[in-house]
Known about the structure:
This is PRELI/MSF1 domain-containing protein. By secondary structure, this protein is of the alpha+beta class.
Amino acid sequence: MKIWTSEHVFSHPWEKVVTATWRKYPNPLNPAVVGIDVVDRNVANGTLKSQRLISTEWGMPHWACSILGGDKVSYAVEHSEVDARRKCMTLVSKNISFSNEVSIEEKLTYLPHPNKPDATLLKQEAIITVHGIPLSSYFESFISSTISSNAQKGRQALEFVINRMGGNSLEEELHHQVI
């Protein structure tokens, strides 16, 4: 098992960063994400809860697909909660594809920065576990490195989206997402 963690500060208010997360895909900086489908979404006690299916094309090498019996498209499920009153957004995703061989659970938490009123703190954690494959620690390290690289691209993509966003408020975006 390998644990990867990271923190990043966005120089934007929490509301703007959270709004941008709903608009993050598709974007030219993360072409691996080819689809996101909302499976369930509801609001309870002021908290928006969503479940989405994420489709990705990671371009795995042919030999890796042969070992894992994979397809070009891989799937993950994402559970998210947005508590606008507490100003906390949490996304937890877990791979569905290859889950018998490789388990990746990633958690992202967006909070207002404790010392910078117009900034947002992103905390990321991924737990990678490879089961029943030779050189599992090598694969865990390789996957961790890939997650780190993709996290950087994800932060750049979020900045890209923020810079292209209009003036929609969080409430307008949440209303649009629920409908």
